[in-house]
From TrEMBL:
Residues 10-188 form the Ketoreductase domain. The keyword Oxidoreductase applies. This is SDR family NAD(P)-dependent oxidoreductase. It comes from Erythrobacter rubeus. Belongs to the short-chain dehydrogenases/reductases (SDR) family. Transmembrane segments: none annotated. The keyword Isomerase does not apply. Keywords: Oxidoreductase. InterPro entries: KR_dom, NAD(P)-bd_dom_sf, SDR_fam. SMART domains: PKS_KR.
């Protein structure tokens, strides 16, 4: 966490904060001065992370597939720290499975969490920023390089992430005059709890070998761009997607 950006005075709500990239985002945003509301379904993990971070973190139990949970999550964040002016919509599941085999229920669940949940989270944040007169709002939505690359076995997941990119661009246009910047980050393949087992298999190892640098990228590669997009310095950046993939799509 050597990158330093001044986020003091900001209050961020981060979904999917109980593990993986979400927990890293929470740590680095808090380390750079922001208050952080940690949103996810697994409250015990959130409480442990909040205790680790310190007094500028609060655990907020929420399921992004349910709008009522999202509203309640923002209410809890406001009670803890005041108006949320920074949203990181990160919650997601892998939705893995070949298109011909994937049950309808799993397709619906993947789209509900990854796409609908991201839209509802961003929307609730924007509504409250507008109502509170926030003029330097920041919304960062986490997409994926699978939004642009054919991804056999990840049809529902890749469709959800492509939807996130386009939804972010459209919301950026809707809220531009309110001073709310909406951007996406499309990470490459990073080892997380979602894909850990896959990359230990022979097909997973072969996939890594096909990347130009023959490696998975480190999650620290997202730190700088994320902090920038959450900061006042990102005033002139909205409706943009940042592909951060260690050259995996080359």
């Amino acid at each position: 966490m050597s990158i330093s950006v001044d986020l003091s005075g900001r209050t961020a709500l981060i979904t999917g904060a109980s593990s993986g990239l979400g927990s890293r985002f929470a740590r680095i945003v808090a380390a750079n001065g922001a208050n952080v509301a940690l949103g996810a379904r697994r409250k015990r993990r959130l409480e442990a992370l909040a205790s680790e971070i310190g007094e500028n973190a609060a655990a907020v139990e929420m399921d992004v597939a349910r709008e009522a949970d999202i509203v309640a999550g923002f209410d809890a964040a406001e009670r803890a720290f005041g108006t949320v002016d920074t949203v990181i919509a990160n919650a997601g599941i892998d939705g893995a499975g070949m298109a011909t085999d994937m049950p309808e229920e799993e397709i619906e669940r993947t789209l509900a969490i990854n796409l609908k949940g991201a839209i509802l989270t961003a929307r609730e944040g924007a509504k409250r920023m507008i109502a509170a007169g926030v003029t330097k709002g920041r919304i960062v939505m986490i997409a994926s390089i699978t939004a642009f690359e054919p991804s056999p076995g990840l049809v529902a997941y890749s469709a959800s992430k492509a939807g996130v990119v386009q939804a972010a661009r459209s919301m950026a246009r809707e809220w531009a005059r309110a001073g709310i910047c909406v951007n996406t980050i499309s990470p490459g393949y990073i080892r997380t709890a979602i894909n850990d087992e896959w990359f230990d298999t022979e097909p997973g190892k072969k996939q890594i070998a096909r990347f130009p640098k023959r490696r998975l990228m480190g999650e620290e590669g997202l730190d700088g761009p994320l902090l920038f997009l959450c900061s006042d310095s990102a005033e002139f950046v909205t409706g943009s997607d940042f592909v951060l993939d260690d050259g995996q799509t080359l």
